[in-house]
Amino acid sequence: MPPADLTAELEELHAAAFGWAMSCCGWDRTAAEDVLQATYLKVLDGRARFDGRSSFRTFVFGVIARTAREARRRAGLRRWLPLASLLLAVDGRPDPATALVRADETARLVRALGRLSERQRQVLHLVFYEDLTIAEAAAVAGVSVGTARTHYERGKAALRTLLGEERE
Amino acid sequence: MIERDDHHVKRAFEALRREDAAGTPPFAATIAAARARRTARPRRRALELAAAVIVLVAVVVISIRRERAGVRLEIDLATVRWQAPTDFLLNLPGDELLRSVPHLGPRGLDRRTL
User: Fold this and answer.
1) In this complex, which of A108, A129, A156 lies closest to B6 when CB atoms are compared?
2) Under 8 Å CB-to-CB from A145, ≥6 apart: which residues?
3) How much is the ipTM here?
4) Does the first or last residue of chain A, that is N or C, have fewer Cβ atoms within 10 Å of its Cβ?
């Protein structure tokens, strides 16, 4: 795909990609922007190559998920460095500014999602937020369709319980 | 895929999407920041590599110097042995006989006499 087409496709997906990056980074806005920039760079430089086996959207979401995982791994290593607290790192928690401006309902949802396993959170986000099918969500998360369906069902049941608890 | 009783979960996710969409950074700014990273990254990589090489060289030099100087960490337990004031109670008359092996002389016992 020519670079101009890639840029146009990325622009079309930008809002959805940012939402997905936010989810992968535990709603830490700074970390999500960082991951999104790194992802765009990988796609535009050809380090992540779209081979047409899935939709472009699924491909970009997969790259975002991988990039966020790499960022978390790096952040984990950096914690061992001296003065690590001075470095910006993805720690999987919402940043205070983002948490402050959230409405009650969405703040409850973010808190409840934070208590699910990473896979359950990913699959639910991809299905409910990004309107992907379970098969597409499985491709993005890098798991089989059966596994994704299990995460979807269990995650949904857990989320309903957690949202019920939050409301009480 | 989404069942009827999932609607309130779906509504909550839609609200989350609307909030995130309102705070989405402009695409042009994200691309510009990504391109700026492209130019900054090789310099950062070079700095990280240089730091790693410096640390490695320092470790090698220090270990070679220590080896040449013959610095060895030895612990002399005799110097740190603690003596209790009541240790004299353990001294028995003739206890030097218990700490040594009796010497039977150069010939030892004659088998023929046994």
Assistant:
1) A156
2) A134, A135, A138
3) 0.74
4) C
